Amino acid sequence: MKLLVTGGTTFVSRFTAKYFVRQGHDVTVLNRGSRAQVEGVTHLAADRLALGETLRGKSFDAVLDITAYTAEHMTALLDSGVKWTDYIFISSSAVYPETNPQPFTESQFCGPNAVWGDYGTNKLAAESVLQKRCPQAYVLRPPYFYGLYENLYREGFVFDCAMQGRPFYLPGNGEMKLQFFHVGDLCRFIEILLERHPADRIFNVGNPETVTVKEWVTRCYEAAGKTPLFVRVSRERHIPQRDYFCFHDYEYVLDVSKQCALMPDTLPLAEGLREEFDWYRKNPDSVYYRKPYIAYIDAHLA
Predict the structure, then answer these.
(1) CATH 3.40.50.720: which residues of the chain?
(2) 178 Cβ partners below 8 Å, 6+ apart?
(3) CATH architecture of 2-146+182-204
(4) In this predicted model, what pLDDT tens digit does every residue of 3-29 receive, in sequence order?
(5) Coil, helix or strand for 123?
(6) What average pLDDT does the segment 218-246 reach?
(7) What mean pLDDT do residues 232-244 have?
(8) What is the 8-class DSSP label of residue 247?
(9) In CATH, what number does 155-179+209-251+268-300 get?
């Protein structure tokens, strides 16, 4: 297939571009050219909000839109003159209000989420533009992505603690649930959509199993060949969780039964984390936004 991937140089979009090149597809990426490109792609250099004639008259079997974060982003690409057969937009589970009953389902009301703020409302606005103008487009709503090329300081933070032999400072009792989705499983599901064209247009995507924070940290340490020693940070101390830990104090679960009906198996978390650790150990500078969790812990908790 002839595919257009928006982005193509960072985490999810980079993995996606590389995955489909390896599958033998003709992959074009759209980005500003500020970072190295994936080998084998055709690069179109442009700012998404200033496309000019970059895409006019070009045609693709599918657009894999990974970098639309606002209605303006979506409108700019739809007005660019590009043509496509299928459109798949990677939205977010942040479009569900935190007050909705859980697990969140695709049929639920979407609206502001107090935890995610503008990120969620902007993603929802992008969804709305796409659905109004292209009702046959697919919209995917993931939880937390993980895997190769991760550029946020999440698994990398825990890997660093493990490699340095540090104890891990655990929020509360560590029972807060987290839900993940491997970037490779995202690409496999995109393939299924393009091959089968299911009637449903909106899909929650993610591992059907959730893990507690304590389980997730343990598996990250195990990926590094270590066993964590936990230090509990009592919530009674009223220490902001994001000062010393990489996730918000917010637990939610997605119903991914519609995804599982099409793709029953997802990569086991332990296997995905081992793969990510091996890559991170060789590419520690891949994290662009390295927050000072360890410095905060040493100054205020240790």
Answers:
(1) 2-146+182-204
(2) 143, 144, 210, 211, 212, 213, 216, 247, 251
(3) 3-Layer(aba) Sandwich (3.40)
(4) 999 999 999 999 999 999 999 999 999
(5) helix
(6) 95
(7) 92
(8) S
(9) 3.90.25.10
In degrees, to the nearest 5, what angle opens at C-alpha 286 toward C-alphas 280 and 291? 100
71-80, 208-217, 287-296: segment of lowest average pLDDT: 287-296
CA 37 to chain centroid: 20
Query: Helices (DSSP H) in 2-154: which residue ranges?
Result: 11-22, 71-78, 118-133
pTM, whole model, 2 decimals? Answer: 0.97
What is the reported pLDDT for 132?
A: 98
Distance CA 188, CA 268 (A): 14
Nearest to 286 by CA among 187, 155, 162, 184: 155
* 182-212 pLDDT, tens digit each: 999 999 999 999 999 999 999 999 999 999 9
Q: Which two tokens stand for residue 199?
A: 């009637």
| CA distance linking residue 11 with residue 60, whole number of Å | 23
Nearest alpha-carbon partner for 51 in 74, 19, 24, 17: 74
Q: What is the pLDDT of residues 100-151, one digit of tens each?
A: 999 999 999 999 999 999 999 999 999 999 999 999 999 999 999 999 999 9
The single residue listed with the structure tokens 């891990």 is: 168
Q: Which residues of 151-181 are buried (b: 16+ CB within 10 A; e: fewer)?
A: bbbbbbbbbbbbbeebebbbbeebebebbbb
The CATH 3.90.25.10 domain(s) of the chain lie at: 155-179+209-251+268-300
